[in-house]
Task: structure prediction
Amino acid sequence: MKQMCDLNKHNQILRHLSEIPGRMISIHGRENVAAFVLSDLCHENGFNLTRAAFFVDNPDFDCFKGIAGVHKGDSHGISNVWQDADQYSSYMISSPFNKLIRSIEQKSMARNGHDEKEAVHKIAHELNFVQPKHYSWRMKHDNKGIFVFDHVHGELEELAEHMQNCIHLFSFCPIG
Result:
C-alpha cells in the first residue's frame, strides 16, 4: 500500500514538473521567469522545498549574482502564480528573502579559482539555510547555474535525479 502511495506521489510530482515549460511560455517576455520556475520547484506538488535560491556565475563578466529566492516563511497567498503573474511579480519585488538573494553580487567563483562547494556553503550559511545542498550545471555563454536549497531527508533522495534535470529549466530564463 505504501509503495502505491509513493508511486502516486511520484507521478503527481512529475506531472506538476512536466507542466513548467508550457507555463514558462505563457509568461514569456517577463524578466523574472526564474522566480516562477523556482516557485513551482518549491511548491508542495513539486519538490516541496522550504527555501531555495538560484544564482548565476558569469566568469566572462567576473560576476556571481543572485537571481531569485523563495522561502515558504514569506507566504504570498497566491493560489496560482502563473495565472496571477502581475501579483506574484509584485510580491517577489517585496519578498524579503528574494530581495536578499537578488542583493548578492560578487566576483565570479570560477574566474577567481574559488572552490565552488566551499563558496556556496558559505553563502548558504549567511542566508540561514538549515541543511544546504546545491547543484550546479553549465549554462549557455559559459555561465554556470547554481541552485541552493534546504535539504530535507526522505523522498527528496528518490527525486534527486529529477531535480537535477528540472533545474536546467533556469537556463531558459532571462537572468537580468
